[in-house]
Amino acid sequence: MTAAGDTSRETVNGHVRHWWKEAVFYQVWPRSFQDSNGDGIGDIPGVIARLDHIADLGVDAIWLSPHYDSPNVDNGYDVRDYRAVGAEFGTMADFDALLAAVKARGMRLIVDMVVNHSSDEHAWFVESRASKESGRRDWYVWHPGRDGGAAPPNDWRSFFGGSAWARDDATGEWYMHLFHEKQPDLNWESEPARAAIFDAMRFWLDKGVDGFRLDVIAFVSKDPAFPDYPPRHRDAPEYYHADGPRLFEHLCDMRREVYRGADKVALGEAFGVPLPRAARLVAEGSGPLDMLIHFDAVRIDRAGMWRWKPVPLPVFKRVFTDMERLLGRTAWRAVSLSNHDNPRLVSHFGDDGPRWRVRSACLLATLTLTLKGTPIVYQGDEIGMTNYPFATIEDYDDVEGKGAWSDWVETGKVGAQEFLENLWRTSRDHARTAMQWDDGPNAGFTTGTPWFHVHPDHGTVNAAAARADDASVYHAYRRLIALRKARPELVYGDFRDHLPDDPRLFVYERRIGADACLVALNMSGEAASFATPEGFAGAALVLVDGVSPQKTEPLAGSVDLEPWDSRIWRLPGS
Q: Looking at 74, 94, 269, 502, which residue is catalytic?
């Protein structure tokens, strides 16, 4: 069913080889990447102008976040037309030029596909809500209300705050929106709706894109009984809505009807799907998806959608051991520790202060590019961009954060200061500030007025400075990507954590038989030591903080690591 089922391919360590397993992806969120026309909004010609910055890292594929026509209630994740480029981003001719330019540089391009929901301005929904007799009525999830139609059908909640149901005055019925009320959920139980979705997806494959990142794809199957939440899910609705009764069937239909055997990647966002259940979605040879973006690591410090909680390092490390154990050796996943929906990588898991920002950003690059799975680098992480100093709720743009403010602060459930302190740690708006290209006005992002904030640290944290400094975060990514390409064990090797209970150190190996790399990370601001693991005596040091060591001695005895130090060794002759 999947491309992974092609057993004629070469295998490595029990894994069928595929380009998307061996690739490094770079995510472009176009609104904040580069503006080419001075309107303050990043656009497709701007992406084309900066492609060499991406290609020079050595990445293999670009994931382009939504570029579709949209009212932008949720920054493009509310699609008004699946076959049109948003006017703020350019034209279809611009998209075609981007695709050609990406391929000319030896890279591939995948696009976001948002098909759990659409915009309420999409022609499909406009017709669906016109009357109960509309031919497209069942293309969306409609249901009578309770209490004579005055109350929502059940207690389901939107991830953006409030009920997951909105009443339509024209017909008196309620439509489901797991996200914003202007993002009605498509009804995958409707065969004509599925056919129209699949046709829109084929439009982009026919253009030559290399696959899709499938937004919140785990939510497309709804419980047709529409019961109230079970008690265990009232505080975690994402785990209820994910992995619905027909999810596997729907995704198999999608794979068969859309991909039609082509070696194009299906990268599914699997928020809320328990790992044992997620395993069947990416089972090699039978799963409808090729790999998963899972949230167990990136959202491990969340208590709900906006509240932050401290997490000891052993708990964080356990996620990756659990993935190996519960997904299975050959089920593939993405390594995605930051993206457009999460805080900046170095502010989230490192130390973004002036003393340790570069070193901890290099450590996190090492982590991303040596864990098992396909690495995804989010724009700006390759130069160590940091969280923005938001101070008030008015500083934010995100509909999710403002919805939570309405739910929690305006109702008196929590104080404003407590909420803002937590939101600063968890908000996805940090990832949406302008890309910092240089130390000039607006960080080189636009000659106009930026649509959103430019970080005040762009005078020192910018791409021009990073590219000019051989010891920068940018060049650490470049060297680590080159190492991953040269060492099959960093792609297909088994993972083993040597110090699962250590509160500061993450020391693990990637191994294919006698070929092995040892990765040691001090994820703390204090010096720490560890004993050379059995079997690694004599290993050669390859990289230190993303830089090739000037001189080295074979690994032996006790190893001392400075704060935020990161090192990689390989066994001699391997």
A: 269
- Tell me the C-alpha to C-alpha distance, in Å, between residue 68 and each of 44, 61, 75, 215, 318: 11, 20, 10, 14, 38
Query: Any idea which architecture 494-570 has in CATH?
Result: Sandwich (2.60)
Angstrom distance (rounded) from CA 74 to CA 78: 6
Q: What is the CATH number of domain 3-8+23-116+186-390+427-477?
A: 3.20.20.80
Q: Indicate the domain borders of the chain.
A: 3-8+23-116+186-390+427-477, 119-185, 494-570
Contact 73, 67 (CB under 8 A): no
Q: In this structure, what are the phi and psi dihedrals at residue 284, rounded to the nearest 5 degrees?
A: -65, 125
- Report strand pairing: 302-303 vs 307-308: antiparallel
Quick count: other Cβ atoms within 10 Å of Cβ 513? 10
Return the number of other C-beta atoms located less than 10 Å from residue 505's C-beta: 22
- What is the per-residue pLDDT across 444-485, written as a single tens digit (0 to 9) for each? 999 999 999 999 999 999 999 999 999 999 999 999 999 999
Q: What is the DSSP letter of 229?
A: P
Q: What count of residues does the chain have?
A: 574
Question: Do residues 103 and 63 lie in contact, with contact meaning Cβ atoms separated by under 8 Å?
Answer: no
Determine whether domain 119-185 maps to CATH 3.50.50.60.
Answer: no
In sequence order, the 6+-apart residues with CB closer than 8 A to the CB of 176 are: 140, 141, 142, 143, 156, 164, 165, 184, 185, 222
The predicted-structure confidence for 506-545, as pLDDT tens digits, reads as follows 999 999 999 999 999 999 999 999 999 999 999 999 999 9
Does the pLDDT at position 8 exceed 70? no
State the DSSP code for 140.
Answer: B
Residues 343-357: pLDDT tens digits? 999 999 999 999 999
User: Within 10 A of 217 (CB to CB), how many other CB atoms are there?
Assistant: 30
Looking at per-residue confidence, does 364 or 553 come out higher? Answer: 364
Q: How far is CA 508 from CA 62, 334, 505, in A?
A: 28, 18, 10
- Write down the H helix ranges in 16-110: 19-22, 44-49, 51-55, 92-104
Residues 78-82: what's their mean pLDDT?
A: 98
* β pairing state of 165-167 and 174-176: antiparallel
484 touches 368 (CB < 8 A)? no
Is residue 382 part of the annotated active site? The answer reads no
The set of residues, in sequence order, having a beta carbon less than 8 Å from that of 385 and lying 6+ positions away, is 344, 346, 433, 435, 436, 455, 461
Of all residues in the chain, what percent are helix, strand and coil, respectively (each to 5)?
35, 20, 50
Q: What pLDDT, on a 0 to 100 scale, did the predictor assign at position 573?
A: 63
> DSSP labels for 169-209?
TTTS-EEE-SS-TTSPBB-TT-HHHHHHHHHHHHHHHHHT-
Verify whether residue 502 is a known catalytic residue. Answer: no
| pTM recorded for the entire structure | 0.96
HSE on the CB side for 346, CA within 13 Å? 28
CA–CA dist 157, 490 (Å, integer):
41
DSSP letters along 538-570, please? TPEEEEETTB--SS-----SEEEE-TT-EEEEE
